[in-house]
Structure formats: structure tokens, C-alpha cells
Amino acid sequence: MSIRRVMPVLHAEAADPADGEFYAALGFEQVMTHGWITTYASPTTPAAQLSIMTADRTAPVNPEVSIEVEDVDAVHDAMRARGAEIVHPLQDEDWGVRRFFVRDPHGRVLNVLSHR
Fold first, then answer.
1. At a CB cut-off of 8 Å and minimum separation 6, what does 80 contact?
2. 50 SS3 class
3. Is 18 strand, coil or helix?
4. Which tens digits make up the pLDDT trace of 67-99?
5. 69 and 114 Cβ atoms separated by less than 8 Å
6. Domain locations in the chain?
7. pTM of the model
8. By the 8 A CB rule, do 73 and 31 touch?
9. What residues does the VOC domain cover (predicted)?
10. Do 101 and 87 meet the contact criterion of CB atoms below 8 Å apart?
């Protein structure tokens, strides 16, 4: 199973325009925003990213980390075979990803995804 990127998901009560200025001062560029989530990336190392999320649009909980993998279906099958708790079912989202949420052994919620 190939991992393409791992990205922290930071939580915020509300979207704040000052976030963009703050992260720009650290060298990040805004690369995606949906209102409820905004992602910033390094222009020189595009896989170096972080997201700020208020509340996930389709899931019952917010993840703490996003992990982009080559084959999300294979990872989903592996997690189910381990008996891991699937917190949000495997599904295609209208913003172009296929994903599921799984709880790790320490209780953290991970968003595992592939771009379609």
C-alpha cells in the first residue's frame, strides 16, 4: 500500500480570514477551500500541507489526520480485516475524493482517502 501524503487537520470554531495571512507568513499558500475546510501547502514542497477544519461536511466527527493513499479500497479492506472501527463509511465525496474514517488504537480519527 502506497502512501502519497499525510496531513494534520487542525480544528477551529469558525473560519478566520486571518488564517491565510498567518500561514502565508510561514510560507504556505492556500490550495483549497470549501468554507468548512481550508488547506495550505508549501509552494516548494507541495505534499507539505495542513488543513483547518470547522466541521466535516459529511461525517459525524472531525478527523485529526488525513492520509492520502494510492488505493483507498485496499486500505479499507485491510482495516476491516483487522476489526478496526470504521467511523465514517467508505464513500465517494462530491469534492473528488473517495474516503473513509477509521479510529486508531489511541482513539484518534483518521481520514483515509484517494483522489478520484
1. 86
2. strand
3. helix
4. 999 999 999 999 999 999 999 999 999 999 999
5. yes
6. 3-115
7. 0.88
8. no
9. 2-115
10. yes
